[in-house]
């Protein structure tokens, strides 16, 4: 009796099933994937910045009106359009 034949077929089926699984094939080493929307990012800080979209974390605060922003660029844009200033303010 040869039982090794059956096990090799099982291995083939297992290989086929795992290759058909899209989520495991997407996750390549070196790329940073968003745990929330499975989007890929080339660098870790870009992913960190993107994750704030999901977590709602807003570390940048407007010193004038207290509005909070997730991105530094958005705060700068706010300062320019709302308060008509481009530089971050020094008064506390
Ligand atoms: Zn995401
Ligand atoms: Zn403001």
UniProtKB/TrEMBL annotation:
Keywords: Metal-binding, Repeat, Zinc, Zinc-finger. Residues 32-59, 60-88 form the C2H2-type domain. The keyword NADP does not apply. InterPro entries: C2H2-ZF_Transcription_Reg, Znf_C2H2_sf, Znf_C2H2_type. The keyword Zinc-finger applies. This is KEN1-like protein.
């Amino acid at each position: 009796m040869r039982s090794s034949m059956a096990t090799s077929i099982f291995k083939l089926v297992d290989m086929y099933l795992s290759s058909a699984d899209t989520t495991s094939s997407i996750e390549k080493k070196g790329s940073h994937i968003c745990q929330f929307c499975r989007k890929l990012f080339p660098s870790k800080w870009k992913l960190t910045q993107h994750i704030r979209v999901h977590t709602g974390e807003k570390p940048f605060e407007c010193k004038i009106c207290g509005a909070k922003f997730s991105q530094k660029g958005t705060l700068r844009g706010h300062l320019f359009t709302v308060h008509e200033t481009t530089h971050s303010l020094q008064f506390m």
